[in-house]
Amino acid sequence: MQKKLVQSSLALTAATALGLGSAFFASPAMADGPQKIDVQSDKQVEKALAEIDPGNVNAYGVKNGKLNLGVEKKTDEIKDLEKRFDNVDVIEGVGELKPYAANDIVGGAGYLVTSPSGGGACSTGFSGWDGAGNPIVLTAGHCAKDYNEDTGVISGPSTVDQTEQPSTAPAAGGDGFNRSGLGVIGTWGFSSYGSGDYLVGDDPNGWPQPKSTDIDFAVINVDETKYGVKNGVTDWTSASTNDLSTKLATDIKQVGSEQPGTVQKSGRTTGVTEGEVWTEYNEAFDYANIGGYWVHGFGVRSDVDDPFSQPGDSGGAVFQGDTAVGVISGGGPAESNGTTFQFGWVADLDYSLQQSGTDFRLTPPDNGGGDDANADAGADGADSDAGADGAGANADAGADGADSDAGADGAGANADAGADGADADASDDGNPEKPEAPKAENQTIKPNGQVTGTAAPNAEVKVTWKPKAGTQKAVKAQGAPQDNATVPTDAEGNFTIEGPEAEGDYEYTAQTVVDNQESDVTTFTVTVQAADDATADAAAEGDDANADAAAEGDDSNANADAGADAKDANADAAADSKDANADADDSKDGEAPAERAIAIEPKEIAASEFVKEDKGVKITVKGFDEGEKVTLEVMAGPENVKGIELTETANADGVAMFSIYGTSASNPSVYIGKYDVSVTGANDTDDESPLTGSFKVVGDDQGNGGGGSDDGKDGGNGGGGSDLPRTGAELTGLAAGAGLLLVGGAAVVLTMRRVKKN
Questions:
Q1: Other beta carbons less than 10 A from residue 373's beta carbon
Q2: Is the pTM of this model over 0.85?
Q3: Minimal CA–CA distance to 248: which of 688, 661, 640?
Q4: Which CATH number fits domain 99-356: 2.40.10.10, 1.10.3660.10, 2.60.40.1190, 2.40.240.20?
Q5: What span, in angstroms and rounded, lies between the C-alpha atoms of 279 and 299?
Q6: How many CB atoms lie under 10 A from the CB of residue 579?
Q7: Each residue's pLDDT tens digit, 237-272
Q8: Domain segments of the chain: what residues?
Q9: 202 falls in which pLDDT band (50, 70, 90)?
Q10: Bias category Low complexity: which stretches (predicted)?
Q11: Do residues 416 and 423 lie in contact, with contact meaning Cβ atoms separated by under 8 Å?
Q12: Average pLDDT score over residue span 587-613
């Protein structure tokens, strides 16, 4: 249900230096008549707005059958519009926002632009690669325009200049606008600033409604001979070294939609800042007037004393955890009910990528590797040059010493068939063939269990999911939003992804991507349900190896009566009645092999709780063989914490348990971040996938205060439950392998604690 905000009065404070306005809600007037405008009809909307000055409308949205308009002031025409239609809500006091990075010394996170009318600076958003493997940088579209702030006229494109010297940028306390000396970054690729339609009513027969293509988004094609690209967002703490890549606020693992709550930004003017996603505003408005042009996105609120963004941050990275959600577009101050705050507008990244048709990858698409990923066919020492500076992906031509130049035309690396130096294309016409669609069956998993499927080997699979409508179980999945992720396949074509936590039915899609070619979409259903108590523990009673605990009281196996003494269950098999025969799958006769599962408790924990010895995060896995060595790997979390491995032995029930907590109690915030975990067994076969999951350490204002029970027990998963000593491996914060990284005078360490067995 759409929220109406009808009780807030507003007095906007104009931004004297920037000419920026902002927005809040006032009470909408009630219509006198019963008329309703069909908001889905462009003609009806255009006719209704024909008398409205578009220069006075600064926010526009259509939600739940209502047309929402934000205006600087209510003119007679606006008042008449309200009277004629009772599904038009007009919010007074919504001022026009000005774009950052105009000609008045504005900019972003580390690069300069020039134009005939002047120069400026803008912030880089996110670095990565396009589908052909070429390095690109995402930023704001208005940075690519020669824009006149006074008239709103775009006279042409700007020109990309050099990166800005970090040590002299405003985020580092300097005045900025000093070239780094590394050379011009590259050239503009795609760029759009509100579709180029200025909000002036020149056409009396048409009203400039927002269009789906109204975005503030641009791509810089990076010159590989001068720069490389690295995934991640800088935290600006290494600015004095003029190398922002050495200290990251986060790695970026995915692109997604903004979520309610805290959002962060990194930019060359204000560095790393935080704000709150303005959910109530975003529920009413999809577009904001940024410098006279509609821009699709979402609003963010922050304190005036600690603004989310300022001029010069345009194009800067907006992120939540390891998810990229947008780039800075514009903003300004606002005052409501005596409270002054800063309002910022973010061009949403997932929407901008879709509308622009930009194929953006967080890893090089040829191999998913790092900055210099070489795939060498290894014949006769032949080299394949993917770029002059070696930063690209090298695919060796492989035969007769022939060189295959993968960077000559920018089209990506050619994979040679290995004969006489000739290049082997994926199809006769030189274009890659469309890959086969993934294979995935309808499946039932436990909360956060593994969703599996198969596709082309060593490829990528785009996976989306959302609660399934029209089923009773879908009700349970409310609050589990639609999401998406891209996962790799292994050499056999298997892929896995962690499933939802909330119980219910989910609609999944999967699509294979090979060499920038997409397959048809495969759809399937995943049902998430808790383990049935009657079937969960087939191996709990070690002596009753032949009684099938998964049965519902009856036993179809003539050799094993579920109600008989376990010692007699195998009489017909002429075996020792006291011993269970081993099946081919290593389970005991008459017993279903235990399903593997992983439980992580809690999934999210406050940093202050994480550093308490008797709390932390407990990880329990089951479904392994008695005595099997079980290895838990914790991947690197925050930038200053290095991942490690720890091995435990599965108990008689096939269960192994681990506990993780932090030892740096004086500085718990160093642990904030997401940690991915993977569990494997020594007896794993080639077709068995690891158990995977994750947990998050968050700030105390976000955490749930969890971390296990106060008595240190394991939650009834088969372990001991006593307080345990700090034994096992340690996660240590390492500085380039040069020893412990000291943060605030305390060594940053994570300790993995073994859980005692009964």
A1: 19
A2: no
A3: 640
A4: 2.40.10.10
A5: 8
A6: 12
A7: 988 988 888 888 888 999 999 999 999 999 999 999
A8: 99-356, 447-528, 597-754
A9: low
A10: 375-421
A11: yes
A12: 74
Residue type at 121 in one-letter notation: A
What is the C-alpha separation between 170 and 167, in angstroms, rounded?
A: 9
3-state helix, strand, coil split of the chain in percent (to 5) is 10, 35, 55
Cα separation of 229 and 668, whole Å? 31
pLDDT of residue 225: 86
Total residues belonging to the chain? 758
Higher pLDDT, 375 or 485: 485
Q: pLDDT of 500-521, one tens digit each?
A: 988 888 889 999 998 878 898 8
Q: Considering just the CA atoms, what is the radius of gyration of the chain in Å?
A: 30
pLDDT tens digits for range 385-418: 333 333 333 333 233 333 333 333 333 333 232 3
* Side chain identity, residue 437: A
Q: In the structure, how many helices (H) and strands (E) does the chain have? A: 5, 47
| CB neighbourhood size of 132 (10 A) | 17
Which amino acid belongs to residue 586? D
What's the topology of domain 597-754?
A: Immunoglobulin-like (2.60.40)
CB 377 within 8 A of CB 395: yes
The reply to whether 447-528 and 597-754 are identical in fold is: yes
Q: How far is CA 754 from CA 26, 52, 547, 678, 723, in A?
A: 58, 70, 32, 16, 10
Beta 323-336 vs 98-99: how paired, if at all? Answer: antiparallel
pLDDT in tens, 540-570: 333 343 333 333 334 433 333 433 343 343 3
- Name the phi and psi angles at 415, rounded to 5: -100, 115
**What's the Cα-to-Cα distance from 5 to each of 33, 67, 109, 447, rounded to whole Å?**
22, 14, 35, 37
| Cα distance between residue 91 and residue 111, in whole Å | 37
Rounded distance between C-alpha atoms, residue 706 and residue 95, angstroms: 43
Q: Cβ contacts of residue 47 below 8 Å, gap of 6+?
A: none
Number of Cβ atoms within 10 Å of the Cβ of 497: 18
Closest CA to 549 of 584, 581, 593: 593
The two structure tokens encoding residue 36: 């309703």
For the chain, the farthest-separated pair of C-alpha atoms sits apart, in whole angstroms, at 98
Amino acid identity of residue 595, one-letter, is E
- What pLDDT, on a 0 to 100 scale, did the predictor assign at position 610? 79
Q: Which fold has domain 447-528?
A: Immunoglobulin-like (2.60.40)
Amino acid at 693: G
CA distance 92 to 78: 10
